[in-house]
Amino acid sequence: MAFFRFLLQEAADNAMTVLDFTRTISPGMPLFPGTPRLRLKEIAGIGGEGYRETQLLLTSHTGTHIDAPAHIFPSGKTLEDYPASQFTGSLAVLDCTGFPPGSEIPASFLEEDPLAPQAEFLFFRTGWEKFWGERRYFEAYPVLSAGAARWAAEKGKKALGFDTPGIDPAEDAALSLHRIMLGSGRTLVIENLCGLSAAPAGFLSCAALPLKFEGSDGAPARVIGWTP
């Protein structure tokens, strides 16, 4: 009995809280303007074929997804070029809810944060996810300054994640911030995160695992964080 009590205590001591920061892919979900509509089509059913199978028709930047350098650079790396270790690491979720719409998050905000310099992943909680499903979601969201983007790229962060539809202002057709971060070849971009308000203070462990397909300029990903 003592042994079983020991096992139960070990399980309790090592219990983890796992947080899901991923949007569920579903018909009618918000898509960046101009993106083809996604389709989920049942091509086999339990009542007919004896099993269920669904065909997914969607773009590589649907829902919560990761951008690769190949997204904007002709000879840029694709996601399958990276080792699996690129997609796991330590995470800091930064509270950026104090920045107003259309504002820039400066490099000093990152430099002065106690966790940002050490974390391998940085997620920016702007609170913008509250507009999910509204036209406003795609307008005037806070973004990083060019200096902040350069700081993150120079630090070699594995990925920066945002609860917004993009890292560049919607009107920036040049994708300037994408070019700074993805141009380093080391720092990836995650967009359309959600649930960041549930993240506790301090470091978390993170896994941001994209679909692995050939030539992936980007891919939907399951993004989770956990802490003992």
UniProtKB/TrEMBL annotation:
<dbReference type="Pfam" id="PF04199">
    <property type="entry name" value="Cyclase"/>
</dbReference>
<dbReference type="InterPro" id="IPR037175">
    <property type="entry name" value="KFase_sf"/>
</dbReference>
<protein>
    <submittedName>
        <fullName>Cyclase family protein</fullName>
    </submittedName>
</protein>
<dbReference type="InterPro" id="IPR007325">
    <property type="entry name" value="KFase/CYL"/>
</dbReference>
